[in-house]
Amino acid sequence: MREKHLLIGIDPHCTYETVHALRSIGEVLGQDTGSARLVLVSVVGELPVAVTCDTPSLPGSYRSIGQPLLIDAMISAQSLQAKLSLTKARTIARTCGFCDAHIDCVMRQGGTAEELTRVACNYHVDCIVLGNRGDSIWQLLRRCVTGSLSRQLTATAPCPVLTIPVSQKPSLAQISNVVYALPPLRV
Predict the structure, then answer these.
(1) Are 24 and 164 in contact (CB under 8 A)?
(2) What is the CATH number of the domain that holds 44?
């Protein structure tokens, strides 16, 4: 039997939610951490093009304020932060019982849902695991504007998507809501 491949989404600052999800997977697997391979993935987002109005009297007159060197510096800073987050996540995974040989760290650049889906396909992942910030007013508003990563992933992922909210105890019996992608129905 092949070992299970779990993709863990690592956000840019390896937040409490991400750490909680990683530790929860370690606790759920318990002594079986040797039967799983972790693929820790951090995605450096695409930089938005910043613009400013040249002439207030001419609506639509814009110029880019992003100089090439500044954009390169911003990408380098994001990449460094992603590497630090992956290092922290690898350390946490080792403390949860995963051996270094079963942990792959991957850094990608692009849209988060798209890149997580690509990595899941490339590594033949059995499940994508994400931390969840919960349903605070701020999170609900943010989801209205930018959308929900877990919702985007359920539409594109080649495998189930498990979100672990911080309010949830790390026990398989207590994980009450599992969201996963199903293949499209063929009529």
Answers:
(1) yes
(2) 3.40.50.620
